[in-house]
Design goal:
single chain, mainly alpha, two-stranded antiparallel ribbon, 3 helices
């Protein structure tokens, strides 16, 4: 399982492009609020899987078969 999630991965699993962008953006804000100021960078497009799971409320455990 991937530990870092980007916009294209979210699109591949079924989210629309705008939704994927918003999930990444909200995940980055969540990571900054947890003290990881590294994610306060507009050029950074990958976030940890746990942050995406926190934002969406979905488990990404069964998505090993999806490739970039």
């Amino acid at each position: 399982m991937r530990q870092l999630i980007d916009k294209s991965y979210l699109i591949n699993i079924g989210f629309r492009e705008h939704q994927a962008i918003m999930i990444i953006r909200l995940s980055k804000k969540y990571m900054v609020s947890q003290g990881f100021t590294f994610y306060n960078n507009s050029r950074l497009g990958c976030v940890p899987k746990i942050a995406v799971e926190h934002i969406t409320g979905l488990s990404l455990q069964g998505d090993e078969s999806i490739e970039n």
